Amino acid sequence: MTTNYSRRAFLGLGAAVGGGMLLSACGGGSASGGGDGGTLKFWDMPWGQANYTAAAKKLTEAYQPAGSLPGATYQGLQWANFSQTFSSAIASKTGPAVSTGGGFQAFQFADQGAIAYADNVINQFRQDGTFDDFLPGQLDAMKTAKGYAAVPWQLDFRIWWYRKSLLDAAGVKVPTTWDELLTACRTLAGRKLFGFGTGAGAGNNLGSQGLHLMMLNNGGGLFNADGKVEVVTEANLEAMRFVQDLVKAKAVDPASISYTTDNLITQWRNKRVAMGIHTAGLDTDTGETDGDLQVMGPLTGPSGAKAGLVFQNNIMMYADTPSQEGSEAFLSYYIKNMKTLWQQNVVAGLPVLKSIVALPEFQAQKQKAKIIAEWAPVAKTFAANSPTLFGGLAAVDSSQPITQFAQTVLAGQDPKPALESLQKALEAIVK
Amino acid sequence: MTLTAACPKTEVARTRKPRRARRTLLVLVAPSLVLLLLINAYPLVYAALQSVRDGSLINAGDYVGFENYRATLTSPAFWRSVQFTLIFTVVGVFGSWLGGLGLALLLRTRIPGRTVFKTLLLLPWVVPVVVSSTAWNWLVATPQSPLPSLAQALGLGTPLFLADPVLAKVTVCVFKVWISVPFMMMLIGAALAGVDRTVYEAADVDGATRWQQFRHITLPMISRSTYISWILMTIFCVNDFPTIFLLTGGGPVDATTSLVVLSYRTVFQNFQVGPGVAIAFVMTASLVVVSVALYRQIRKAHV
């Protein structure tokens, strides 16, 4: 049997097929944002070594929602281009209901109306006692004029480390003040060792964050008490001139302005770096947990102040969710049960809950326990001297101006024009 | 008497038939056209709108007219990026072309292991940039890396290939040439294969030297391919993000920040969407002008 189609019928069929394809393409992804098939989407960043994601996924999948509340699915994300990933997903309403992410992401998205404030969760924490389990000041850091933008779950410090064997061999005592630091750096430089290990190359923010820590240590910072950019201050200038002295004392590797994080870790591992500012995970990153790499105590600056730099990594809820009550229930569950991640030792960051700090598994990690004991009480946020965090911070950390500033100062150039350029550039970014 | 009435019936039918056929063809390509418009034109129009707004990655923001373009064109950072983009493109295009031409000519001769040699030469182009940039980073990043160590051994000091602004520019450009030479080699090799060897035999009989043969036969005969390769490589270089970003991130102190890197950093690191997209549009417009100029050269090429 043969079937004859007229040209008109053929064209009609073609149009129908094309139109159908077009409609299906346009309507792709029928699930609403935040949900997938009636469950909440939880997006998480890689917060530790390879085994972290498996542990966090297991924790998510163990969630048993009460009554008719939705369950949760886990999606691990990479840091590469994470801003685009979140932004495009939120704009196209295919984003998560709950997520971890950049330290200031919640504040940034809150400014754009994409965040569901966590006040209900915090109120519930007040009632069940979890509120008091948070380390002092950590919940307050999440507070904005409209409510709690997120709930902190781990802390990411920038702190001083030293390699004990190199200091011992050079007869250098662990510095406690800036003056001692400079003296120690000079002695170490005589042995071709770097006393201010850092890196400001592609994707490496440790250089700019290290300089920021020095500013904070001297009572300075990037912002004033009103949350406005104010970097050209005497305190900052003095701190950066001290860094310039360190550069002159050959404490800074001239190649470090182009070091990626991997390059810097390699230099630590190869024992080229004797002291430096790094994250809390340096010993894990280098694969050396034998005690040769040790955390220094906070240094006393020229004004007598001590300070550290801390990023409160947080879990945020999004306005676009299948169930706000469901998002809150899941977030509450995650915070109350996340101790397993520290018991398994899979997280690079430090706990934000006192009950986790007290765990024997955590206390066994001596360097991390020292950070909580000595650095947490003096640590300041990236927004200091502003009392609160805000959305504009996301555009400052790892931005082009701050990276350029770090590379300029670490190259030993005059810090004053560098600070003036930074002021101008940050004013254009932070609104 | 009307014109139609003057025409014989068969002629009217003959003129109507192609018109109907054209309409049919138009209807047949319509779905593809619609899809192309949705895939290409929609993002382009949306980006154009973003470039005249003060928005974020999520919200469109307020209309600001051509303020973003004004800010871009008066920014020193933009002009520094233009300068580096020009250097990167000129070195990338002509460096890879010269390398590719040299290798293609070499591979025309009967050298032992030519096929193996050809395959090995393709590796820089075939290997993902992420892998090759990691390898180059290992080669040059620290004073203890192989190349700085070699320079030290030769008494040339310790060159900071990625930390010194001038050396970083050189390193990035050389990296780009290294990656692109195989592509040029293939294009030129294909063009050379199409050149009739009898022309060279005739030139030999006429007493032309090797240089004269190269200048007056080879170059003109491959000119069309040459111009095409220049257009393609210009586009590749101007739009090249990973080569630069993975190796230097645009540093040190913005020394290797090209326009595409500047655009990316403005949008996704500084979260200034309007100005970042404006940079991309200025870059695209410049690229179109260069491509059209080179395309005209292709049409003038006599082979």
From TrEMBL, chain A:
It comes from the Bacteria. InterPro entries: Bact_solute-bd_prot1, TAT_signal. Transmembrane segments: none annotated. This is Extracellular solute-binding protein. It comes from Paractinoplanes aksuensis.
UniProtKB/TrEMBL annotation, chain B:
Its main location: membrane. It comes from the Bacteria. Residues 82-294 form the ABC transmembrane type-1 domain. The chain crosses the membrane at residues 24-49, 84-107, 119-140, 227-253, 273-295. It is a multi-pass membrane protein. Keywords: Cell membrane, Membrane, Transmembrane, Transmembrane helix, Transport. Pfam families: BPD_transp_1 (PF00528). It is found in: Cell membrane. Belongs to the binding-protein-dependent transport system permease family. PANTHER family: BLR7065 PROTEIN, SPERMIDINE_PUTRESCINE TRANSPORT SYSTEM PERMEASE PROTEIN. This is Sugar ABC transporter permease. It comes from Paractinoplanes aksuensis.
